[in-house]
Amino acid sequence: MIETHLSRRLFLGGASAAALMPGAALAQSDGRKTLAFAATCRELAGFDTIPNALVAGAARAFPDEDRTALAEKTASPDLSKSLLKTLYTGMYSPEDGDPTRFAYAEALMYAAVEDSLNVPSYCGGVPGYWAEKPVSA
After folding, report:
1. Is 97 among the domain residues?
2. pTM beyond 0.85
3. Who's near 12: CB < 8 A, 6+ residues apart?
């Protein structure tokens, strides 16, 4: 009885592992594509690091064939410009559809001037700083 019980467990474990294998291979393939797309984003934008939310939003916005072309460096100059515009504005604007905003504060247009400009609508100091009298008063 114990031997039969163990063989059922082994069978179920093996069947479960086999069922997961195609998904695991697909996930690895998608992971490589995502890394290649992120590398393309960094290369085009000229930044060493780009926020994950920005890369993930751009990856969701662009169709699969465009992401593949960008990652494999076979994209047209117009497609590369579209990706660069998307990264800097945090908004994907296809020619034949409505624009989609997926990032605001993470957009690279603010990273380029972060030393001298706060993101509009974000507080410029610690919470409640506006309630204190100015230093010069």
Report:
1. yes
2. no
3. none
Task: Assess contact for 60 and 54: CB atoms under 8 A.
Answer: no
Q: Does 84 reside within a domain? A: yes
Tell me if 89 is assigned to some domain. yes
Which DSSP string do the residues of 35-100 spell out, in sequence order?
HHHHHHHHHHHT-S---HHHHHHHHHHS-HHHHHHHHTT---HHHHHHHHHHHHHSEE--TTS--E
**For position 26, what pLDDT does the model report?**
37
Report how many domains make up the chain: 1
pLDDT in tens, 67-102: 999 999 999 999 999 999 999 999 998 888 889 899
Q: What is the pLDDT of residues 109-120, one digit of tens each?
A: 988 787 777 677
Are the CB atoms for 83 and 41 separated by under 8 Å? yes
Q: Which range marks the domain in which residue 93 is found? A: 20-118
